[in-house]
Amino acid sequence: MMESKQNQGVLSMDIINPHAAGVDIGSRSHWVSIGQSEKEIREFGVFNDDLYDIAKWLKENNIKSIAMESTGTYWQSLYAVLIAEGFEVVLCNGKFTKNIKGRKTDVQDCAWIQKLHSIGLLSGSFLPDEQTEQLRTYCRHRANLLDMAASTQKKMQKYLRLLNLRLDIVVNDICGLTGLAIIKAICKGEQNPETLSELRHGNCRKSKEEIAKALHSNGRKDYLFALQQELETYEHLQAKIIICDKEIEKMFTHIIDNDDEKRQHQIGPKSHKKINKNTPKNIDLNLLGYQYFEGVDLMEIEGLSHSTLLTLISEVGLEGIKKFPTAKHFASWLRLSPNNKISGGKVLSNRIPKGSNRLKIALRNAANAIGNLKESTPLRDFFQRINFRKGRVSAISATARKLGVIIWNMVTHGTNYINPAGYLFLDQKRKLGIVKRIQKQIDKFGLTNEDVVFTTV
What we know:
The protein is an alpha/beta fold and about 450 residues long. The protein contains 19 helices and seven strands. The longest helix has about 35 residues.
């Protein structure tokens, strides 16, 4: 009886992971905790030998499972070593390992992570498989090269404007076929407007006379020098992008050729899908995407471009999408689902969570393209409905979430894309519901056409 009274008011939590460790990742050192006492916490360096010393010390103490924060890119080397040594590693988002208010030190952080992991309060972050991770490195590097090339293009346009060469007015893209030919001639010393206008490509809408009128230079040598430098940088970046495209093609070929299930699928080209200048050259993403997803044609979805498909493959991959148990989990991971905050039965907030990953940005761009479609489709009509009620920003987020749900269902169930009737407007759904209820009443009372009289006002 006395023992039961002493236990009253004491809340105990079961140990889920008895052989657990916590690691506080740092740029110059890693703090590792295998318990809560000072003797059970050690500091290690970040060199390769130090990482293997961590694994050795953890094995000596019979540690099976390890939790660590995903701090920048500092965790990746240690994570690879621990996985190779046979440990179970849980990579956690930093917002789930925040300690209570008070003094913050690395020692307290790693001990707190160890405690949370021991009682099973930490969940792991999504990590793609090794092939997808390697492909992601190439694609992200390519995206960075494209960003640098776009920045260089803006600088070229600025120096052209300072030279009073208004090439940006007469051509849509100064780095297109007509624009680049004229810029190269200018950098080589050509100043005659009529001679420059002769470099006009046949697809250019402006006439030679209009182009020549915009190419009267003021002859500033300093601006011309800067333009030459930026042109060299742009051409260098374009050469790097081509080399990167070849590596991506090799990676795709390796993935598909080593899988009989993927290699057997074939599909024809899609003429309605536009290929812009940033699309990887000499890579048939339509065919490769169809083979990669084992006969699922995601390019049938309106608004989905080659770059969106490449981002989906490199950021998540086929096996990565299947890791999510439902489409709602996938949309929540993309941060495209409302984060409902409810207190006292009242919804306080239902905003989309902050933060964006590259796949979320790609789906939002695809949703924006759907909103610009001229032909009526269920997704485009859904976009317009949300746009009318809540604005374009909300419409883009809602349509991007729809795309995520459609992609998950197609990939996990292996189905083709069909414009679903589930994307009817809310008023249309209500109308169908009313019609069904009226039909039930007519059948119930045995009414005929003579009994039901429709009048027009």
